[in-house]
Design goal:
Structural class: mainly alpha
Strand order of the largest sheet: 1-2
Number of strands: 2
Distance between the termini: 13 Å
Helix content: over 70%
Radius of gyration: 18 Å
Strand content: under 5%
Shape: globular
Number of domains: 1
Length: 280
């Protein structure tokens, strides 16, 4: 049975999306957990994807100068081989690295909207990828700046991004961890992670827009106004979160998020085991 989303739910979920999209804690996992624990239902994968358009708009605004420079450099490089510098290469890296998630997202779209939203799986992924992030922090050399980014780095981070199709993994956590394992600095890994997310998340949000208004099966159905407000809230809070995270990673490790992920994962497992919340 499909229930109508309330304004309070839409506002809260918009705040959660904005706060968690860019942190390595999984925004989709948090939206699933919050909607189930506090509202007793699932906001749905489509609602999640559409509200991500707000946070991606924040990325576009925050990195507008960088994005404009990269796009212009990419077009110049296509016409003139002597103009193929770092920005031209980054443009290609983003394009190439987006292909894997486009393929996997299309092939597994039904599973992503159903089986992958099981809270047992989400809580397990929170814990498993907390360990992955910790290992990346510990073993990653963290010596190479973004100027040394290569095609191999872009592809590896692109495939890592595919893991974020499963709620609980975290797009930024997976891609940044891959970057750290490859020897990139935290700032370089996180910055490229933001750029890499733009085409994939934007395409996913636009593709899911019709389903967000009329979700299939169980879940919460949001009105157009509610989705618009939630997306706007996600944009405003997401913009602030980007600025904070980029400053944070310069002088702090990602270990700060590891403990939080493990605690949250264990708490959700406890609620599931106690029958307080439903896994599906």
């Amino acid at each position: 049975m499909i229930e109508s989303m309330t304004w309070a739910q839409a506002i809260i979920l918009g705040i959660v999306q904005g706060l968690t999209e860019f942190l390595p804690v999984s925004s989709s996992g948090h939206l699933r957990i919050v909607s189930e624990v506090f509202f007793g239902d699932d906001a749905g994968a489509s609602f999640t994807a559409v509200t991500q358009l707000g946070t991606e708009a924040a990325v576009l605004l925050y990195f507008a100068r960088d994005i404009g420079r990269i796009v212009m450099a990419w077009f110049r490089g296509l016409r003139d081989a002597t103009q193929r510098g770092l920005d031209y290469r980054i443009g290609w890296y983003v394009i190439i690295a987006t292909i894997p998630i486009g393929v996997f997202g299309f092939v597994f779209k039904d599973a992503i909207r159903t089986a992958a939203r099981n809270l047992w799986l989400i809580s397990a992924m929170l814990i498993v990828f907390a360990i992955v992030i910790a290992l990346a922090e510990h073993f990653g050399p963290k010596q190479r700046p973004i100027e040394q980014l290569t095609t191999r780095d872009g592809l590896a981070m692109g495939f890592a991004q595919c893991l974020a199709l499963v709620p609980g993994v975290s797009r930024s956590g997976a891609t940044a961890s891959a970057g750290l394992f490859l020897g990139l600095t935290r700032e370089a890994a996180v910055r490229f992670s933001f750029l890499l997310a733009i085409p994939a998340v934007t395409a996913s949000g636009l593709f899911s827009l019709p389903d967000a208004f009329e979700p299939a099966g169980e879940g919460l159905s949001a009105s157009g106004a509610q989705i618009a407000v939630a997306t706007l809230i996600a944009f405003v809070i997401g913009y602030a979160a980007i600025a904070w995270l980029l400053k944070f990673v310069v002088n702090h490790s990602l270990y700060w998020f590891v403990g939080y992920r493990i605690i949250l994962g264990l708490v959700v497992m406890g609620l599931l085991a106690g029958g307080v919340v439903s896994a599906t």
